[in-house]
C-alpha cells in the first residue's frame, strides 16, 4: 500500500511517502513558513524523489486537527482534493495522535501530546501503547491547563509529554506531577508524516466529501450565536445551491 | 481547432463555486453553493466560518461541476482559480484544491484575479470588444477599469472609502433589512421616490473616483435625527433616495470616462451589477447620451461570485500561456 502522509496542523510541515510499513522519503520543516506556499511543491518533490506518479497512490493520510485552523485546512484541502480526484482512500488522523506516536513504549506510562491553545488552555489528549500500538485512552480535548494537570495527577502514573509547546507548561507540569513528569529528547516533539502514515495504514477510510477538520472548537462567532440561540440546531442547512 | 476546457474554482468570499468553461465562452457547468444563510446569523460574513464552509463543500462542488459538464480530467486543458482579492482563509481553500487537481492530473495551473473575473462574466453572454470601460461594483469594490485589450487593465477611478455594495449593506442594517441589504434596498427603491435628496459626493470633481461614506453618514444621520424627534420615516422613499444618489454618481462618472476614453463598449460587472436601479439608469444613460457605445450587462446569475467568470478570464491567460506554479498563494489585497 502506497501512502502519502501530510501534517500541516501547526508550525511544522511534515510530508512523507510510505510503502506498507517502509518509509521511502520524508520532509519535515520547522521553520515558520506559509504552508500554502510550501506544501504542494514539497509533495511534488517527494514524488520525484521516490519515482512515484500521483495515481500510484493507494491512500492519503492527513492530520485533521486540532491545531492552527488555517494550517489544518491547507493540509485537509490538499489531501481531500487529491483523494477525491485520484479516487484513492483518505484517512484522517488526530494531529495529537500523530505527536503521541513519537512516544516511547515505557511500561505502564501514558503519553500526553499537547499544543498551546492560548489563554492557559491546551489542545491535548491521553494515549498509551497496547498490542495495537499507540492508541487513545481519552478523547482529544480543548481544556484549561490547570484542570488537565489535576486530572493527569490523579492517574498516578508516569506521563511522557510531547509537543514543542511542552516547554511553556513545563514548570506547571513538574510542580504538579513531580517525578511522574517525563520529557523526551528534542526530536520527539515534532510531528512526523511517516508516523502519521503508519497510524493511518490500519484505519478505516473516510467518506471523502464529508471529511472535514476536527477543530475541537467552534468559531467564536458561532459559539456566541449558539449561546444566544440554544434552541436552534448547530449544523446543517446553511449552504444553498444557487 | 480543438476546444479548450478549463475547470475553474472560486472561493474568495462566501460562495464555493466550480465551473467548466469551453474556449472562454461556453458554460458546460457552473455550480455555486452560497453560505449566505449561515452568515445571516451574524449580520455579515465571518471569515473563519466562511473558510470552514469552503473546506466542507469544495470537493462536492468540483465533482458536481465535472459531472454536469460530462467530462473527465483528461479532457481538461487547465485548472484555474481565484488567487485574490478576497478573504485570505477562504481563498486558500480554492487555491490549494486547484493545486491538488493540477498535480493529480498534470494540468497547467492558472491564477485569476477576482475582479478580472467579474469583468469577463460578460464574455459568457456577449462578445467583449476593445477598447472598453468596465464599471466594477460589488461589496468590496467600486472601480472604473479601462481595457485596451483582453489582457490590459488600467484602473482610472475607484472609491476612496466604502465600496458601493458595502454602503448598501450598512444602510440596510440601519433600516433593519436582512443581510445582505443591497437586494432589499433595490426592491424598496422601486416603490419609492427620491424625496430626501442625499449628497452626490465628488460628482462634479474632475476625476473618476468615488466616495460613499459621506452619503452613508448623511443617510444614518437622517434616520437618527428622525428617531430622536419621534418622526415617522418613509423607508421606501429613504431607499429610493439612497439608490438615486448612488446610481447618479456611478452613471455620471462612468459616462464621462467612457466618452473621454472613446471606448467601443461599456461593461458592467460585480455583484451590484444585479441592482435593477443601476442596470436601468446605465441603460438609459447610454441610450440617450452615447448611442454608439455598446452596453454589456451580465445576466443576473453571473453578477454574483461564480467560477464561470473565473474560467472565462482564465482562457485569456491560457492562450498567453501565463501559468502559476505550486507556490501559488492566496493574495487578499491583489489589485488588477
From TrEMBL, chain A:
Name of this protein: tRNA threonylcarbamoyladenosine biosynthesis protein TsaB
A Pfam family the protein falls into:
TsaD
| InterPro entries with a match to the protein in the record | ATPase_NBD, Gcp-like_dom, T6A_TsaB
Instruction: Classify the source by domain of life.
Output: Bacteria
Which species does this protein come from?
Alkalibacterium olivapovliticus
Q: Which residues cross the membrane?
A: none
One Gene Ontology term of the biological-process aspect is: tRNA threonylcarbamoyladenosine modification
Q: Where is the Gcp-like domain?
A: 32-224
Quote the cellular component terms of the Gene Ontology held in the record.
cytosol
Automatic annotation (TrEMBL), chain B:
Q: Which chemical reaction does it catalyze?
A: L-threonylcarbamoyladenylate + adenosine(37) in tRNA = N(6)-L-threonylcarbamoyladenosine(37) in tRNA + AMP + H(+)
Protein's GO biological process: tRNA threonylcarbamoyladenosine modification
Q: Which cofactor does it need?
A: Fe(2+)
| Compartment(s) where it occurs, according to its Swiss-Prot or TrEMBL record | Cytoplasm
Organism superkingdom: Bacteria
Cofactor note text: Binds 1 Fe(2+) ion per subunit.
Q: Which InterPro entries match?
A: ATPase_NBD, Gcp-like_dom, KAE1/TsaD, TsaD
- According to the entry, every stretch annotated as the Gcp-like domain falls at 27-311
List of residues binding Fe cation: 114, 118, 305
The terms describing its cellular component in GO are: cytoplasm
Under Pfam families, the record lists: TsaD
Binding of substrate occurs at: 136-140, 169, 182, 186, 275
- EC annotation from Swiss-Prot or TrEMBL: 2.3.1.234
UniProt keyword terms in alphabetical order: Acyltransferase, Cytoplasm, Iron, Metal-binding, Transferase, tRNA processing
- GO molecular function terms noted in the UniProt entry: iron ion binding; tRNA N(6)-L-threonylcarbamoyladenine synthase activity
The function of this protein is: Required for the formation of a threonylcarbamoyl group on adenosine at position 37 (t(6)A37) in tRNAs that read codons beginning with adenine. Is involved in the transfer of the threonylcarbamoyl moiety of threonylcarbamoyl-AMP (TC-AMP) to the N6 group of A37, together with TsaE and TsaB. TsaD likely plays a direct catalytic role in this reaction.
PANTHER family attached here? Answer: TRNA N6-ADENOSINE THREONYLCARBAMOYLTRANSFERASE, TRNA N6-ADENOSINE THREONYLCARBAMOYLTRANSFERASE, MITOCHONDRIAL
- To which protein family does this belong? Belongs to the KAE1 / TsaD family.
What is the protein name for this chain?
tRNA N6-adenosine threonylcarbamoyltransferase
Amino acid at each position: 500500500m502506497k501512502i502519502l502522509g501530510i501534517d500541516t496542523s501547526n508550525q511544522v510541515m511534515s510530508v512523507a511517502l510510505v510503502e506498507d510499513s517502509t518509509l521511502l522519503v520524508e520532509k519535515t520543516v520547522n521553520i515558520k513558513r506559509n504552508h500554502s506556499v510550501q506544501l504542494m511543491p514539497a509533495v511534488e518533490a517527494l514524488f520525484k524523489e521516490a519515482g512515484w506518479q500521483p495515481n500510484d497512490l493507494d491512500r492519503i493520510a492527513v492530520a485533521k486537527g486540532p491545531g492552527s485552523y488555517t494550517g489544518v485546512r491547507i493540509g485537509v484541502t490538499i489531501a481531500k482534493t487529491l483523494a477525491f480526484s485520484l479516487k484513492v482512500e483518505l484517512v484522517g488522523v488526530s494531529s495529537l495522535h500523530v505527536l503521541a506516536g513519537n512516544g516511547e513504549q515505557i511500561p505502564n506510562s501514558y503519553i500526553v501530546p499537547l499544543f498551546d491553545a492560548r489563554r492557559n488552555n491546551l489542545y491535548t489528549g491521553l494515549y498509551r501503547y497496547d498490542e495495537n500500538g499507540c492508541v487513545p485512552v481519552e478523547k482529544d480535548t480543548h481544556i484549561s491547563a490547570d484542570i488537565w494537570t489535576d486530572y493527569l495527577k490523579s492517574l498516578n502514573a508516569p506521563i511522557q509529554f510531547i509537543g514543542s509547546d511542552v516547554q511553556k507548561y513545563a514548570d506547571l507540569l513538574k510542580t504538579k506531577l513531580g517525578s511522574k513528569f517525563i520529557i523526551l529528547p528534542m526530536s520527539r516533539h515534532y510531528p512526523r508524516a511517516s508516523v502519521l502514515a503508519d497510524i493511518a495504514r490500519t484505519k478505516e477510510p473516510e467518506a471523502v466529501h464529508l471529511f472535514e477538520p476536527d477543530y475541537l472548537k467552534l468559531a467564536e462567532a458561532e459559539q456566541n450565536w449558539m449561546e444566544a440561540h440554544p434552541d436552534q440546531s448547530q449544523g446543517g442547512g446553511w449552504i444553498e445551491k444557487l | 481547432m480543438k476546444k479548450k476546457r478549463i475547470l475553474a474554482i472560486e472561493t474568495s468570499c462566501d460562495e464555493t463555486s466550480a465551473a467548466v468553461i469551453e474556449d472562454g465562452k461556453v458554460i458546460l457547468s457552473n455550480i455555486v453553493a452560497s453560505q449566505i444563510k449561515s452568515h445571516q446569523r451574524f449580520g455579515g460574513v465571518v471569515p473563519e466560518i466562511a473558510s470552514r464552509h469552503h473546506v466542507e463543500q469544495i470537493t462536492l462542488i468540483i465533482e458536481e461541476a465535472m459531472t454536469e459538464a460530462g467530462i473527465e480530467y483528461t479532457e481538461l486543458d487547465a485548472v484555474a482559480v481565484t488567487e485574490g482579492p478576497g478573504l485570505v482563509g477562504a481563498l486558500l481553500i480554492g487555491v490549494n484544491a486547484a493545486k491538488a487537481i493540477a498535480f493529480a492530473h498534470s494540468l497547467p495551473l492558472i491564477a485569476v484575479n477576482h475582479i478580472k473575473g467579474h469583468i469577463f462574466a460578460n464574455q459568457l453572454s456577449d462578445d467583449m470588444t476593445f477598447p472598453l470601460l468596465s464599471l466594477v461594483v460589488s461589496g468590496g469594490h467600486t472601480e472604473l477599469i479601462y481595457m485596451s485589450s483582453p489582457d490590459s487593465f488600467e484602473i482610472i477611478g475607484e472609491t476612496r472609502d466604502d465600496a458601493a455594495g458595502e454602503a448598501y449593506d450598512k444602510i440596510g442594517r440601519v433600516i433593519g433589512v436582512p443581510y445582505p441589504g443591497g437586494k432589499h434596498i433595490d426592491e424598496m427603491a422601486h416603490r419609492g421616490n427620491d424625496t430626501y435628496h442625499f449628497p452626490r459626493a465628488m460628482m462634479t470633481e474632475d476625476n473618476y473616483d468615488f466616495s460613499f461614506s459621506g452619503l452613508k453618514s448623511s443617510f444614518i444621520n437622517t434616520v437618527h435625527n428622525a428617531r430622536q424627534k419621534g418622526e415617522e420615516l418613509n423607508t421606501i422613499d429613504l431607499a429610493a433616495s439612497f439608490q438615486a444618489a448612488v446610481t447618479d454618481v456611478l452613471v455620471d462618472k462612468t459616462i464621462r470616462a467612457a466618452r473621454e476614453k472613446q471606448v467601443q463598449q461599456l461593461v458592467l460587472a460585480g455583484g451590484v451589477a444585479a441592482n435593477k436601479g443601476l442596470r436601468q439608469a446605465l441603460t438609459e444613460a447610454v441610450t440617450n447620451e452615447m448611442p454608439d457605445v455598446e452596453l454589456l450587462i451580465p445576466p443576473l446569475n453571473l453578477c454574483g461570485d461564480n467560477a464561470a467568470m473565473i474560467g472565462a478570464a482564465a482562457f485569456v491567460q491560457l492562450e498567453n500561456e501565463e501559468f502559476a506554479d505550486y507556490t501559488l498563494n492566496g493574495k487578499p489585497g491583489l489589485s488588477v
